[in-house]
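Quarterly update from the structural biology core.
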Amino acid sequence: MIARFWPMFRKEFIQMRRDRLTLGIMIGMPVAQLLLFGFAIQTEVRNLPTVVVDESRTPESRALIAAFENTGNFRVVAHVDDRPALDRAIRHLGRFRGRPGAHARDRESRGGRGGGGGSPGRGPGAAAL
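Predicted structure, tokenized:
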């Protein structure tokens, strides 16, 4: 099997030397993908809305929460007291995920009334608990 591989490999390289388009595609496409995926696509997560359950409420736990916020990756939008409140807040935030301006549109459709909107001063999509 290996004995037949090398002659075929050599034949394909000879063919690529004759056909410049194939050689250009074989070299150009990976370079284009590298540039596209390496520079154009940003995978860094910033300002992720976060709901915090701090049951201990100690200075150490507050320092840990502050450390998370200071990274710039997390944005604490609500502090809740128990697990059911956490589940409600996550469901509430999930309604607005991926829909820019959805919070304002939903509030306007209700005639400016609250009822599921964000908390003042915390930005759109923040849980109102």
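Residues 2-40 form one domain.
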